[in-house]
Amino acid sequence: MAVTDEAVRARLPRFRWQLLLKPSVFIAALLPFLLLVQSLLAGQLGPNPIDTLTDQTGTLAIRMLLISLMLTPLRWILKDTWPIQLRRMMGLFAFFYASLHVTTYFALDQQFDLAAVWADLSERPYIVAGTIAFLIMVPLAITSNKRMVRRLGKRWMSLHRGVYIAGLAVVVHYVWLAKGDLIEPIVYLALLIVLFSYRLVKTLR
Ligand code: HEM
Fold this sequence. Notes:
The chain is mainly α. The protein has helices at residues 5-11, 17-41, 49-78, 82-109, 114-123, 126-142, 146-152, 154-160, 163-177, 183-204.
């Protein structure tokens, strides 16, 4: 008996592109880190490698943070759940790059000198804004697993809304430190305002 194309197709397991989504995004988000390590080892970070590391990790952290904030609106717009599968991972990548950024500053730039860090906080106020952002991100990263979501219940939602305050503090940090060239930080600020307003309108409805 001849087997029709349709019968053959029905027997084949359906290609689930969503199975590849998380690993692909994971690799894409990790790639800048690997390239940064490669440039560091090859001595290709320019005349001031510590400054380059600080700037690159800071930029990666803010971008990952904004991407993580885009995923919920994207789910509403696309009426599909796949963006939500990436939300936790992107939030953790934001924290990963922010931790590298802070470690570069603390260990390489300031060489664990607490007095120098203290002096820097009063001399360069944008460091205060960055510190506030990072301190907000720490509990968000710690409570991002399923067990904590269950344990904290409604409080988890309230705590994680703090991500918008962290985002605002980061943008303030960036606007404040950017001498002259304000285009990039202003684009991030505009994006943050759009995302926050969209979320607010949706929640109020
Ligand atoms: C303890 C917390 C933090 C400290 C001490 C800190 C420190 C710094 C320093 C020293 C710079 C370089 C300034 C310059 O080029 O003159 C910088 C830049 C930057 N930081 Fe932070 N930062 C902190 C937290 C954060 C966090 C949490 C984020 C993002 C999530 C962030 C994002 C950025 C960005 C986007 C830049 C600009 C990079 C560029 O110029 O391309 N920072 N930060």
